[in-house]
C-alpha cells in the first residue's frame, strides 16, 4: 500500500485557514470613546469573546437589522443589500480575516446567480451589517480568535489591583457588567483603569 503525505500536497500553495463561527452577543455605547460603540462577538463553540470598537452609524445599521426595524428611508447598507439582491447576488459569509496593530480586517464572500463566487475587502462593521441582513454566517480565522479572543472569567488582576491584562474594549465590557450588578465600588476601579489607559489620570 502506498501512503500519501497530504501535507506535501500544500507545498507551494496557501494552506486553508480554519474558520470559527461567531455570534453577536452585545452592542453598547463605548465609555472610553464617546460617539463610538463596543460590539462584542463570541466564538459559538469555545465561547471566547472578541471586542470591536465601531462607529455610531455602523452600530445603528447593525442594530436596525438585528431588530428587524424598518427605517423611513434606507440606510447605505440597506441600499447595497437591495442592489445585490436585485442583481441576483447573494452573500455566502462574512469573515474577519486578520488583526494587525489592533485593527481588524474582513471580507465578504458573494455568489452570483450563475454560480460565480468572488470576495470583496470590507471593514468588519460593514461586513457584519451585511451578514445580518443576508442572515449568513459570520466567521473569523482561528488566528484572529487566538490573538484577540478571551474568556470572560479568564482575566485576573495583578497584586496592585490593576487591569493590565485587559484590552480597552474588554474593560468597557467589564464596566458595563459591573454597573448592571450595581457594584459601584468595583465600577469606580474599572473606570479609573480606563482613564489611566487613555492617559486621563
Automatic annotation (TrEMBL):
One of its GO terms (molecular function) is nuclease activity. This is BFN domain-containing protein. It comes from the Bacteria. PROSITE patterns: BFN. InterPro entries: BFN_sf (IPR036104), Bi_nuclease_dom (IPR003729). Pfam families: BFN_dom. Residues 19-152 form the BFN domain.
